[in-house]
Specification:
Layout (H helix, E strand, L loop, with lengths): L5 E4 L4 E3 L4 E2 L4 E4 L5 E3 L3 E3 L4 E3 L2 E2 L3 E3 L4 E2 L4 E2 L4 E2 L4 E2 L4 E2 L4 E2 L4 E3 L4 E3 L4 H8 L4 H6 L8 H13 L19
Parallel strand pairs: 1-4, 2-5, 3-6, 4-7, 5-8, 6-9, 7-10, 8-11, 9-12, 10-13, 11-14, 12-15, 13-16
Antiparallel strand pairs: 16-17
Length: 173
Amino acid sequence: MLFGAVITAEGGSVEIGANCVIMENAVIRGVPNQDMRIGDNVLVGPHTHLTGCVIEGDTRIATGAVVFNGARIETGAEVEFHAVVYVNTVVPAGMAVPMGWFAGGEPAELVPPDDWDRIRAIMGPLDYPGTVFGVGAREAPMPDVARRYARGLALHHNDHIIPDYGHTPSREG
């Protein structure tokens, strides 16, 4: 794990396999009711965000990519720079989500970022509000969701930073 990377269990566990590299400022978030699991031999690039998803193994999640709740990246699939894998999406083994593209559905449909109409059509049935917030699409307005999130995140005032006992300070002189 490199400098600034964050691994946090927000009410859900986080499992990271062998031979994984978590690069600078990546965020890996465990959430309730969804596995957050990274298999063996995975490279997670800088500024990547993984939330409540499964990365099966032998893959690369490139710089700035986002993999949302309930998603699964199968063995050997890749997610390129700044790509988005939407909620409840399955990226099949061997598939690569191109740089900056959107992947949604099961199996994932790949859509270029300028095709907003197609992206919105795919997003609807994948149930972002239910998957991420546990509510129906029209059940809770954003102020209610934001208040619930704020209450949950307030619990972090008791968090403790785990020291890096493997770090050896340099000696001067």
